Structure to design on (551 residues):
Protein backbone atom coordinates (compact mmCIF):
# COMPACT_ATOMS: atom_id res chain seq x y z
CA UNK A 1 0.00 0.00 0.00
CA UNK A 2 2.84 2.36 0.82
CA UNK A 3 4.54 1.52 -2.48
CA UNK A 4 1.35 2.29 -4.40
CA UNK A 5 0.99 5.56 -2.54
CA UNK A 6 4.59 6.46 -3.39
CA UNK A 7 3.84 5.80 -7.06
CA UNK A 8 0.93 8.26 -7.05
CA UNK A 9 2.76 11.18 -8.68
CA UNK A 10 -0.37 13.39 -8.75
CA UNK A 11 -0.83 13.23 -4.97
CA UNK A 12 0.46 15.94 -2.64
CA UNK A 13 -0.10 14.20 0.69
CA UNK A 14 -0.55 10.49 1.49
CA UNK A 15 -2.33 9.28 4.62
CA UNK A 16 -2.13 5.69 5.86
CA UNK A 17 -4.78 4.81 8.44
CA UNK A 18 -6.52 1.69 9.72
CA UNK A 19 -10.10 1.39 8.49
CA UNK A 20 -11.52 1.23 12.02
CA UNK A 21 -10.10 4.61 13.07
CA UNK A 22 -12.60 7.49 13.21
CA UNK A 23 -10.81 10.46 11.66
CA UNK A 24 -11.65 13.84 13.19
CA UNK A 25 -12.01 17.16 11.36
CA UNK A 26 -8.77 18.25 13.03
CA UNK A 27 -6.77 16.11 10.59
CA UNK A 28 -7.88 18.23 7.64
CA UNK A 29 -6.70 21.39 9.35
CA UNK A 30 -3.44 19.78 10.43
CA UNK A 31 -2.59 18.44 6.98
CA UNK A 32 -3.45 21.79 5.44
CA UNK A 33 -0.97 23.47 7.78
CA UNK A 34 1.73 20.87 7.25
CA UNK A 35 1.36 21.04 3.48
CA UNK A 36 2.89 24.50 3.74
CA UNK A 37 6.09 23.17 5.34
CA UNK A 38 9.08 23.76 3.09
CA UNK A 39 10.63 20.33 2.67
CA UNK A 40 9.77 16.65 2.98
CA UNK A 41 8.05 15.60 6.19
CA UNK A 42 6.51 12.56 7.85
CA UNK A 43 3.81 12.82 10.51
CA UNK A 44 2.72 10.18 13.01
CA UNK A 45 -0.18 10.41 15.43
CA UNK A 46 -1.52 7.93 17.96
CA UNK A 47 -5.31 7.88 18.02
CA UNK A 48 -7.27 8.03 21.27
CA UNK A 49 -8.96 4.91 22.59
CA UNK A 50 -12.63 5.55 23.33
CA UNK A 51 -14.38 3.12 25.66
CA UNK A 52 -17.86 4.55 25.17
CA UNK A 53 -18.23 6.89 22.18
CA UNK A 54 -20.83 9.49 23.10
CA UNK A 55 -20.98 11.08 19.69
CA UNK A 56 -22.37 10.26 16.29
CA UNK A 57 -22.38 11.78 12.85
CA UNK A 58 -25.20 14.12 11.97
CA UNK A 59 -27.61 12.95 9.30
CA UNK A 60 -25.77 15.07 6.76
CA UNK A 61 -22.49 13.41 7.73
CA UNK A 62 -20.79 16.80 7.84
CA UNK A 63 -20.20 17.08 11.60
CA UNK A 64 -20.40 15.25 14.94
CA UNK A 65 -23.20 15.72 17.45
CA UNK A 66 -23.88 14.63 21.03
CA UNK A 67 -26.91 12.60 22.07
CA UNK A 68 -28.91 15.82 22.52
CA UNK A 69 -28.05 16.95 18.99
CA UNK A 70 -25.53 19.59 20.09
CA UNK A 71 -22.57 19.90 17.72
CA UNK A 72 -19.25 18.64 19.10
CA UNK A 73 -16.00 20.61 18.88
CA UNK A 74 -12.96 18.39 19.08
CA UNK A 75 -10.66 21.38 19.31
CA UNK A 76 -11.64 21.66 22.97
CA UNK A 77 -9.89 19.73 25.72
CA UNK A 78 -10.01 15.98 25.18
CA UNK A 79 -11.67 14.02 28.02
CA UNK A 80 -9.16 12.41 30.40
CA UNK A 81 -10.46 8.90 29.78
CA UNK A 82 -9.48 9.17 26.12
CA UNK A 83 -6.01 7.70 26.42
CA UNK A 84 -3.64 7.27 23.50
CA UNK A 85 -3.72 3.82 21.91
CA UNK A 86 -0.24 2.91 23.08
CA UNK A 87 1.20 -0.58 23.09
CA UNK A 88 0.36 -1.78 19.59
CA UNK A 89 0.25 -0.67 15.98
CA UNK A 90 -3.51 -0.20 16.14
CA UNK A 91 -4.76 3.35 15.99
CA UNK A 92 -1.63 4.70 14.30
CA UNK A 93 -2.08 7.44 11.69
CA UNK A 94 0.78 8.20 9.32
CA UNK A 95 0.94 10.98 6.74
CA UNK A 96 3.66 12.34 4.48
CA UNK A 97 4.11 14.73 1.57
CA UNK A 98 5.94 14.49 -1.76
CA UNK A 99 5.32 10.76 -2.35
CA UNK A 100 7.84 10.77 -5.21
CA UNK A 101 10.60 11.25 -2.61
CA UNK A 102 11.90 8.28 -0.65
CA UNK A 103 10.60 7.71 2.87
CA UNK A 104 13.62 5.93 4.27
CA UNK A 105 16.97 4.43 3.38
CA UNK A 106 16.27 0.91 4.63
CA UNK A 107 15.37 -2.29 2.77
CA UNK A 108 11.73 -3.24 3.20
CA UNK A 109 11.43 -6.62 4.93
CA UNK A 110 9.22 -9.36 3.53
CA UNK A 111 6.81 -9.26 6.47
CA UNK A 112 5.18 -12.62 7.03
CA UNK A 113 1.61 -12.71 5.63
CA UNK A 114 1.73 -8.92 5.26
CA UNK A 115 0.86 -8.43 8.93
CA UNK A 116 2.75 -7.65 12.10
CA UNK A 117 5.27 -4.99 13.00
CA UNK A 118 5.32 -2.96 9.80
CA UNK A 119 3.86 0.30 11.15
CA UNK A 120 6.42 0.82 13.88
CA UNK A 121 9.19 -0.41 11.63
CA UNK A 122 8.30 2.17 9.00
CA UNK A 123 8.07 5.01 11.52
CA UNK A 124 11.41 4.03 13.04
CA UNK A 125 13.14 3.79 9.66
CA UNK A 126 11.85 7.18 8.53
CA UNK A 127 13.14 8.73 11.73
CA UNK A 128 16.49 6.93 11.62
CA UNK A 129 17.14 7.66 7.94
CA UNK A 130 17.01 11.44 8.52
CA UNK A 131 15.61 12.02 5.03
CA UNK A 132 12.48 13.83 6.25
CA UNK A 133 11.34 16.05 9.09
CA UNK A 134 9.63 13.73 11.56
CA UNK A 135 6.65 15.02 13.56
CA UNK A 136 4.81 13.37 16.44
CA UNK A 137 1.35 14.94 16.33
CA UNK A 138 -0.31 12.67 18.87
CA UNK A 139 -1.28 15.57 21.12
CA UNK A 140 -3.44 17.04 18.35
CA UNK A 141 -5.89 14.11 18.52
CA UNK A 142 -6.48 13.41 14.86
CA UNK A 143 -8.47 10.20 15.29
CA UNK A 144 -10.44 8.01 17.67
CA UNK A 145 -10.04 4.28 18.05
CA UNK A 146 -13.22 2.73 19.54
CA UNK A 147 -12.28 0.43 22.40
CA UNK A 148 -15.08 -1.95 21.39
CA UNK A 149 -13.28 -2.59 18.10
CA UNK A 150 -10.00 -3.03 19.92
CA UNK A 151 -11.54 -5.61 22.26
CA UNK A 152 -13.20 -7.42 19.37
CA UNK A 153 -9.93 -7.65 17.50
CA UNK A 154 -8.19 -8.97 20.58
CA UNK A 155 -10.68 -11.83 20.60
CA UNK A 156 -10.14 -12.37 16.88
CA UNK A 157 -6.36 -12.38 17.24
CA UNK A 158 -6.17 -16.17 17.42
CA UNK A 159 -8.16 -16.65 14.22
CA UNK A 160 -6.70 -16.63 10.74
CA UNK A 161 -8.60 -13.44 9.85
CA UNK A 162 -7.69 -11.50 13.00
CA UNK A 163 -4.70 -9.43 13.97
CA UNK A 164 -1.58 -11.06 15.24
CA UNK A 165 -1.19 -11.22 19.02
CA UNK A 166 2.16 -10.00 20.27
CA UNK A 167 3.06 -13.50 21.51
CA UNK A 168 2.29 -15.29 18.25
CA UNK A 169 4.87 -17.11 16.14
CA UNK A 170 4.28 -14.79 13.19
CA UNK A 171 4.74 -11.69 15.32
CA UNK A 172 8.13 -13.02 16.41
CA UNK A 173 9.12 -13.69 12.80
CA UNK A 174 8.00 -10.21 11.74
CA UNK A 175 10.00 -8.73 14.59
CA UNK A 176 13.01 -10.75 13.45
CA UNK A 177 12.56 -9.68 9.81
CA UNK A 178 12.35 -6.02 10.79
CA UNK A 179 15.60 -6.30 12.70
CA UNK A 180 17.40 -8.15 9.90
CA UNK A 181 16.36 -5.80 7.11
CA UNK A 182 16.48 -2.46 8.91
CA UNK A 183 17.51 -0.64 12.04
CA UNK A 184 14.34 -1.56 13.93
CA UNK A 185 15.40 -2.66 17.41
CA UNK A 186 19.06 -2.32 16.49
CA UNK A 187 21.56 0.23 17.71
CA UNK A 188 22.17 3.16 15.40
CA UNK A 189 25.75 4.34 14.85
CA UNK A 190 26.76 6.75 17.60
CA UNK A 191 27.30 9.59 15.15
CA UNK A 192 23.65 9.60 14.07
CA UNK A 193 21.13 11.68 15.99
CA UNK A 194 17.75 11.64 14.22
CA UNK A 195 15.40 14.43 15.28
CA UNK A 196 11.91 13.96 16.62
CA UNK A 197 9.68 17.05 16.73
CA UNK A 198 6.65 16.98 18.97
CA UNK A 199 3.73 19.03 17.65
CA UNK A 200 1.54 20.83 20.17
CA UNK A 201 -1.35 23.19 19.71
CA UNK A 202 -1.73 26.52 21.42
CA UNK A 203 -4.92 28.29 20.54
CA UNK A 204 -5.21 27.97 16.75
CA UNK A 205 -1.47 27.72 16.10
CA UNK A 206 0.71 24.66 15.74
CA UNK A 207 4.02 24.82 17.53
CA UNK A 208 7.01 22.54 18.01
CA UNK A 209 8.31 21.59 21.41
CA UNK A 210 12.05 21.66 21.90
CA UNK A 211 13.83 19.29 19.57
CA UNK A 212 14.99 16.02 21.10
CA UNK A 213 17.55 13.63 19.70
CA UNK A 214 16.70 9.96 19.58
CA UNK A 215 19.33 7.29 20.08
CA UNK A 216 19.01 3.55 20.56
CA UNK A 217 20.45 3.33 24.06
CA UNK A 218 17.09 3.72 25.80
CA UNK A 219 17.57 7.46 26.33
CA UNK A 220 16.43 10.69 24.76
CA UNK A 221 19.04 13.45 24.93
CA UNK A 222 17.99 17.07 24.73
CA UNK A 223 19.88 19.79 22.86
CA UNK A 224 21.42 20.85 26.16
CA UNK A 225 22.93 17.38 26.51
CA UNK A 226 20.89 16.29 29.53
CA UNK A 227 20.01 12.61 29.53
CA UNK A 228 16.49 11.64 30.45
CA UNK A 229 15.24 8.11 31.06
CA UNK A 230 12.33 7.20 28.84
CA UNK A 231 9.79 7.01 31.66
CA UNK A 232 10.80 10.33 33.19
CA UNK A 233 10.81 12.04 29.81
CA UNK A 234 7.35 10.71 28.98
CA UNK A 235 6.04 12.06 32.27
CA UNK A 236 7.72 15.44 31.73
CA UNK A 237 6.94 16.01 28.09
CA UNK A 238 4.34 13.39 27.15
CA UNK A 239 6.26 12.26 24.06
CA UNK A 240 3.83 9.55 22.99
CA UNK A 241 6.04 7.71 20.54
CA UNK A 242 9.24 7.48 22.55
CA UNK A 243 8.72 4.02 23.94
CA UNK A 244 7.93 2.53 20.55
CA UNK A 245 10.57 4.02 18.30
CA UNK A 246 13.41 2.51 20.24
CA UNK A 247 11.69 0.15 22.64
CA UNK A 248 13.67 -3.08 22.58
CA UNK A 249 17.14 -4.40 23.15
CA UNK A 250 20.00 -3.99 20.74
CA UNK A 251 20.09 -7.68 19.94
CA UNK A 252 17.15 -9.55 18.46
CA UNK A 253 16.97 -13.31 18.74
CA UNK A 254 15.51 -15.51 16.05
CA UNK A 255 11.86 -16.51 16.49
CA UNK A 256 10.79 -19.88 17.76
CA UNK A 257 10.60 -22.12 14.70
CA UNK A 258 9.23 -24.16 13.03
CA UNK A 259 5.53 -23.78 12.39
CA UNK A 260 3.64 -27.07 12.01
CA UNK A 261 1.79 -28.03 8.85
CA UNK A 262 -1.56 -28.27 10.63
CA UNK A 263 -1.19 -24.76 12.08
CA UNK A 264 -0.30 -23.32 8.67
CA UNK A 265 -3.26 -25.04 7.03
CA UNK A 266 -5.62 -23.54 9.58
CA UNK A 267 -4.22 -20.08 8.82
CA UNK A 268 -4.05 -20.07 5.03
CA UNK A 269 -6.97 -22.27 3.84
CA UNK A 270 -9.78 -20.45 2.04
CA UNK A 271 -13.49 -20.62 2.87
CA UNK A 272 -13.79 -23.96 1.05
CA UNK A 273 -10.95 -25.51 3.02
CA UNK A 274 -8.64 -25.45 -0.02
CA UNK A 275 -4.93 -24.64 -0.22
CA UNK A 276 -2.40 -24.17 -3.00
CA UNK A 277 0.79 -26.14 -2.37
CA UNK A 278 4.20 -25.36 -3.81
CA UNK A 279 7.22 -27.62 -3.22
CA UNK A 280 10.76 -26.40 -3.76
CA UNK A 281 14.39 -26.94 -2.85
CA UNK A 282 17.34 -24.58 -2.95
CA UNK A 283 17.86 -25.01 -6.70
CA UNK A 284 14.44 -23.50 -7.41
CA UNK A 285 14.14 -20.91 -4.66
CA UNK A 286 14.18 -17.88 -6.99
CA UNK A 287 11.55 -19.52 -9.17
CA UNK A 288 9.63 -20.25 -5.97
CA UNK A 289 9.67 -16.53 -5.16
CA UNK A 290 8.52 -15.55 -8.64
CA UNK A 291 5.66 -18.06 -8.27
CA UNK A 292 4.74 -16.70 -4.83
CA UNK A 293 4.95 -13.09 -6.03
CA UNK A 294 2.61 -13.91 -8.89
CA UNK A 295 0.07 -15.52 -6.56
CA UNK A 296 0.24 -12.50 -4.28
CA UNK A 297 -0.31 -10.20 -7.26
CA UNK A 298 -3.41 -12.24 -8.14
CA UNK A 299 -4.46 -11.99 -4.47
CA UNK A 300 -4.30 -15.74 -4.05
CA UNK A 301 -3.57 -15.91 -0.34
CA UNK A 302 -4.34 -19.55 0.44
CA UNK A 303 -0.94 -20.91 -0.57
CA UNK A 304 1.81 -22.53 1.45
CA UNK A 305 5.27 -23.88 0.68
CA UNK A 306 6.91 -27.19 1.50
CA UNK A 307 10.68 -26.67 1.80
CA UNK A 308 12.78 -29.66 0.78
CA UNK A 309 15.87 -28.50 2.67
CA UNK A 310 16.83 -26.27 5.55
CA UNK A 311 18.33 -23.60 3.28
CA UNK A 312 15.04 -23.19 1.44
CA UNK A 313 13.17 -23.17 4.73
CA UNK A 314 15.26 -20.32 6.16
CA UNK A 315 15.14 -18.46 2.84
CA UNK A 316 11.34 -18.74 2.75
CA UNK A 317 11.02 -17.53 6.33
CA UNK A 318 13.08 -14.43 5.53
CA UNK A 319 10.96 -13.84 2.43
CA UNK A 320 7.78 -13.93 4.47
CA UNK A 321 6.34 -17.13 2.99
CA UNK A 322 4.06 -19.52 4.92
CA UNK A 323 6.46 -22.47 4.88
CA UNK A 324 6.96 -25.80 6.60
CA UNK A 325 9.90 -28.20 6.47
CA UNK A 326 9.47 -31.79 5.31
CA UNK A 327 11.74 -33.87 7.57
CA UNK A 328 11.63 -36.88 5.21
CA UNK A 329 12.84 -35.07 2.09
CA UNK A 330 16.02 -36.34 0.37
CA UNK A 331 19.16 -34.60 1.62
CA UNK A 332 21.15 -34.82 -1.63
CA UNK A 333 19.09 -32.43 -3.76
CA UNK A 334 21.37 -31.14 -6.51
CA UNK A 335 21.38 -27.44 -7.31
CA UNK A 336 21.71 -27.70 -11.09
CA UNK A 337 21.07 -31.36 -11.85
CA UNK A 338 17.59 -32.04 -10.49
CA UNK A 339 15.71 -31.86 -13.77
CA UNK A 340 13.38 -34.33 -15.45
CA UNK A 341 14.80 -37.84 -15.72
CA UNK A 342 17.48 -37.52 -13.04
CA UNK A 343 17.58 -39.58 -9.84
CA UNK A 344 17.24 -36.36 -7.87
CA UNK A 345 14.06 -35.46 -9.79
CA UNK A 346 12.58 -38.87 -9.06
CA UNK A 347 13.20 -38.49 -5.32
CA UNK A 348 11.82 -34.96 -5.13
CA UNK A 349 8.59 -35.73 -7.03
CA UNK A 350 7.73 -38.54 -4.61
CA UNK A 351 7.77 -36.03 -1.76
CA UNK A 352 4.91 -34.08 -3.36
CA UNK A 353 2.34 -36.87 -3.46
CA UNK A 354 3.18 -37.90 0.10
CA UNK A 355 2.69 -34.31 1.37
CA UNK A 356 -0.54 -33.94 -0.60
CA UNK A 357 -1.86 -37.14 0.95
CA UNK A 358 -1.00 -35.83 4.43
CA UNK A 359 -2.91 -32.59 3.77
CA UNK A 360 -5.91 -34.47 2.37
CA UNK A 361 -6.04 -36.62 5.50
CA UNK A 362 -6.10 -33.43 7.59
CA UNK A 363 -9.32 -32.46 5.80
CA UNK A 364 -8.10 -29.88 3.26
CA UNK A 365 -8.41 -29.82 -0.53
CA UNK A 366 -5.11 -29.35 -2.38
CA UNK A 367 -4.16 -27.64 -5.62
CA UNK A 368 -0.62 -28.86 -6.22
CA UNK A 369 1.23 -26.41 -8.45
CA UNK A 370 4.88 -26.79 -9.37
CA UNK A 371 6.72 -23.49 -8.97
CA UNK A 372 7.54 -23.47 -12.70
CA UNK A 373 3.81 -23.01 -13.38
CA UNK A 374 2.99 -19.40 -14.24
CA UNK A 375 -0.48 -18.21 -13.26
CA UNK A 376 -2.46 -15.77 -15.42
CA UNK A 377 -5.55 -16.04 -13.24
CA UNK A 378 -6.93 -17.94 -10.28
CA UNK A 379 -8.22 -21.34 -11.46
CA UNK A 380 -9.50 -22.41 -8.04
CA UNK A 381 -13.21 -21.59 -8.63
CA UNK A 382 -13.21 -23.59 -11.87
CA UNK A 383 -11.38 -26.55 -10.32
CA UNK A 384 -13.62 -26.55 -7.28
CA UNK A 385 -16.68 -26.72 -9.54
CA UNK A 386 -15.56 -30.13 -10.83
CA UNK A 387 -17.42 -31.64 -7.89
CA UNK A 388 -16.85 -34.44 -5.40
CA UNK A 389 -14.90 -37.60 -6.24
CA UNK A 390 -13.28 -35.80 -9.17
CA UNK A 391 -9.56 -35.37 -9.70
CA UNK A 392 -8.54 -32.60 -12.12
CA UNK A 393 -5.05 -32.80 -13.67
CA UNK A 394 -3.10 -31.12 -16.44
CA UNK A 395 -2.54 -33.14 -19.61
CA UNK A 396 1.03 -33.49 -20.88
CA UNK A 397 -0.12 -34.38 -24.41
CA UNK A 398 1.54 -32.11 -26.99
CA UNK A 399 -0.36 -33.13 -30.15
CA UNK A 400 -3.00 -30.53 -30.81
CA UNK A 401 -5.60 -33.07 -31.99
CA UNK A 402 -6.65 -36.44 -30.66
CA UNK A 403 -7.14 -37.77 -27.12
CA UNK A 404 -5.43 -35.97 -24.27
CA UNK A 405 -5.71 -38.90 -21.83
CA UNK A 406 -3.28 -41.21 -23.60
CA UNK A 407 -0.88 -43.39 -21.54
CA UNK A 408 1.52 -41.48 -19.29
CA UNK A 409 0.04 -38.11 -20.28
CA UNK A 410 -1.15 -37.11 -16.80
CA UNK A 411 1.08 -34.32 -15.45
CA UNK A 412 1.59 -34.57 -11.70
CA UNK A 413 2.95 -31.01 -11.50
CA UNK A 414 -0.49 -29.40 -11.57
CA UNK A 415 -3.59 -31.10 -10.21
CA UNK A 416 -6.51 -30.51 -7.85
CA UNK A 417 -7.43 -33.16 -5.28
CA UNK A 418 -10.42 -33.01 -2.95
CA UNK A 419 -10.36 -34.26 0.61
CA UNK A 420 -12.95 -37.01 0.11
CA UNK A 421 -12.74 -40.76 0.68
CA UNK A 422 -12.37 -41.67 -2.98
CA UNK A 423 -9.48 -39.23 -3.55
CA UNK A 424 -7.68 -40.11 -0.31
CA UNK A 425 -7.80 -43.84 -1.07
CA UNK A 426 -6.59 -43.21 -4.63
CA UNK A 427 -3.71 -41.02 -3.36
CA UNK A 428 -2.71 -43.76 -0.91
CA UNK A 429 -2.51 -46.15 -3.86
CA UNK A 430 -0.39 -43.67 -5.83
CA UNK A 431 2.06 -43.09 -2.95
CA UNK A 432 2.44 -46.84 -2.41
CA UNK A 433 2.94 -47.46 -6.14
CA UNK A 434 5.53 -44.66 -6.42
CA UNK A 435 7.46 -45.92 -3.38
CA UNK A 436 8.13 -49.24 -5.10
CA UNK A 437 8.88 -47.68 -8.49
CA UNK A 438 12.27 -46.81 -9.88
CA UNK A 439 10.70 -43.94 -11.80
CA UNK A 440 9.32 -40.57 -10.73
CA UNK A 441 5.85 -40.32 -9.22
CA UNK A 442 4.27 -39.10 -12.49
CA UNK A 443 3.89 -42.57 -14.13
CA UNK A 444 2.35 -43.82 -10.88
CA UNK A 445 -0.46 -41.27 -11.15
CA UNK A 446 -1.43 -42.50 -14.59
CA UNK A 447 -0.96 -46.22 -13.96
CA UNK A 448 -3.05 -46.11 -10.77
CA UNK A 449 -5.82 -43.77 -11.92
CA UNK A 450 -6.10 -44.63 -15.60
CA UNK A 451 -4.66 -48.16 -15.53
CA UNK A 452 -1.53 -49.41 -17.25
CA UNK A 453 -1.81 -48.66 -20.97
CA UNK A 454 -4.95 -46.62 -20.25
CA UNK A 455 -7.35 -49.46 -19.49
CA UNK A 456 -9.51 -47.11 -17.35
CA UNK A 457 -9.85 -44.42 -20.01
CA UNK A 458 -13.28 -42.91 -20.74
CA UNK A 459 -13.56 -40.95 -23.95
CA UNK A 460 -10.70 -38.62 -24.88
CA UNK A 461 -10.25 -36.61 -21.69
CA UNK A 462 -11.21 -38.81 -18.70
CA UNK A 463 -10.46 -41.91 -16.68
CA UNK A 464 -12.42 -43.78 -14.03
CA UNK A 465 -10.48 -45.52 -11.25
CA UNK A 466 -12.55 -48.72 -10.70
CA UNK A 467 -11.80 -49.35 -7.00
CA UNK A 468 -12.85 -45.90 -5.78
CA UNK A 469 -15.03 -44.62 -8.66
CA UNK A 470 -12.81 -41.54 -8.71
CA UNK A 471 -13.26 -39.63 -11.96
CA UNK A 472 -10.07 -38.17 -13.45
CA UNK A 473 -10.56 -35.12 -15.67
CA UNK A 474 -7.72 -34.08 -17.97
CA UNK A 475 -8.00 -30.30 -18.03
CA UNK A 476 -8.63 -28.33 -21.21
CA UNK A 477 -5.20 -27.50 -22.64
CA UNK A 478 -6.30 -24.10 -23.93
CA UNK A 479 -6.96 -23.18 -20.30
CA UNK A 480 -4.15 -25.26 -18.75
CA UNK A 481 -1.45 -25.68 -21.44
CA UNK A 482 1.73 -27.67 -20.90
CA UNK A 483 5.11 -26.46 -22.08
CA UNK A 484 4.92 -28.14 -25.49
CA UNK A 485 1.32 -27.31 -26.45
CA UNK A 486 0.97 -25.11 -29.56
CA UNK A 487 4.53 -23.87 -29.11
CA UNK A 488 3.24 -21.18 -26.77
CA UNK A 489 6.62 -20.54 -25.14
CA UNK A 490 8.11 -19.76 -28.54
CA UNK A 491 5.52 -17.10 -29.35
CA UNK A 492 6.74 -13.50 -29.55
CA UNK A 493 4.25 -12.38 -26.90
CA UNK A 494 3.45 -15.35 -24.69
CA UNK A 495 1.18 -13.37 -22.40
CA UNK A 496 -0.98 -11.98 -25.21
CA UNK A 497 -1.21 -15.36 -26.96
CA UNK A 498 -2.26 -17.11 -23.76
CA UNK A 499 -4.77 -14.37 -23.05
CA UNK A 500 -6.44 -15.05 -26.40
CA UNK A 501 -6.71 -18.75 -25.47
CA UNK A 502 -8.12 -17.89 -22.04
CA UNK A 503 -5.26 -19.58 -20.18
CA UNK A 504 -5.36 -19.79 -16.41
CA UNK A 505 -1.80 -21.07 -16.24
CA UNK A 506 1.08 -22.20 -18.44
CA UNK A 507 3.56 -24.86 -17.35
CA UNK A 508 7.25 -24.20 -17.95
CA UNK A 509 7.99 -27.87 -18.60
CA UNK A 510 9.13 -29.83 -21.66
CA UNK A 511 12.50 -28.16 -21.25
CA UNK A 512 15.53 -29.49 -19.40
CA UNK A 513 17.87 -27.74 -16.96
CA UNK A 514 17.00 -25.13 -14.37
CA UNK A 515 18.88 -22.30 -16.09
CA UNK A 516 17.01 -22.84 -19.34
CA UNK A 517 13.68 -22.76 -17.52
CA UNK A 518 14.52 -19.56 -15.69
CA UNK A 519 15.80 -17.90 -18.86
CA UNK A 520 12.73 -18.90 -20.90
CA UNK A 521 10.39 -17.55 -18.27
CA UNK A 522 12.26 -14.29 -17.84
CA UNK A 523 12.71 -13.41 -21.50
CA UNK A 524 8.99 -14.08 -21.97
CA UNK A 525 8.18 -11.43 -19.38
CA UNK A 526 6.60 -13.98 -17.06
CA UNK A 527 8.81 -13.27 -14.07
CA UNK A 528 7.74 -11.46 -10.90
CA UNK A 529 10.69 -11.36 -8.51
CA UNK A 530 13.86 -9.29 -8.19
CA UNK A 531 16.36 -11.11 -5.94
CA UNK A 532 18.65 -8.09 -5.73
CA UNK A 533 16.04 -6.12 -3.77
CA UNK A 534 14.21 -9.16 -2.37
CA UNK A 535 10.95 -7.69 -3.63
CA UNK A 536 8.16 -8.69 -5.95
CA UNK A 537 8.13 -6.84 -9.25
CA UNK A 538 5.03 -4.79 -9.98
CA UNK A 539 5.19 -5.62 -13.66
CA UNK A 540 8.35 -6.88 -15.33
CA UNK A 541 8.60 -6.86 -19.12
CA UNK A 542 11.14 -8.39 -21.48
CA UNK A 543 11.00 -5.11 -23.38
CA UNK A 544 12.85 -3.24 -20.59
CA UNK A 545 15.93 -2.77 -22.78
CA UNK A 546 16.29 -6.52 -22.69
CA UNK A 547 17.44 -6.26 -19.08
CA UNK A 548 17.16 -9.35 -16.94
CA UNK A 549 17.64 -8.96 -13.18
CA UNK A 550 19.74 -12.15 -13.00
CA UNK A 551 20.22 -15.54 -14.61
Amino acid sequence: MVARAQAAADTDVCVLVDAEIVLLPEIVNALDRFSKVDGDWFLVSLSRNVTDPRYQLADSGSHWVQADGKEVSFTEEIPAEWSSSEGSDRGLIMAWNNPSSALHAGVLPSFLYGRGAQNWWLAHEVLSSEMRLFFDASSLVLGLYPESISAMQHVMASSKNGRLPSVSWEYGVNHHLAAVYGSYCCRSPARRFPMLHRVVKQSEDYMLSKVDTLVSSDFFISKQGNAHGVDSLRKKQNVSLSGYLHGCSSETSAPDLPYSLSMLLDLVADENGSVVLGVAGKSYRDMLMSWACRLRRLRVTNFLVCALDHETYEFSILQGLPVFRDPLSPTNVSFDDCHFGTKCFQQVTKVKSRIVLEILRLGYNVLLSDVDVYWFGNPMPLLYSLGLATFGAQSDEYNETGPINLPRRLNSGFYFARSDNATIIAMEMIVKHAASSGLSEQPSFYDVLCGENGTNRIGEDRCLEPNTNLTVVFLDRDLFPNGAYKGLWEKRDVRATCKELGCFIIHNNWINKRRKKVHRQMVSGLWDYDPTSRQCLQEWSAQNDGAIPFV
Observations:
- The chain has two domains: 2-54+61-245, 269-536.
- The two ends are 29 Å apart (CA to CA).
- The first helix runs from residue 2 to 6.
- The longest strand covers residues 195-202.
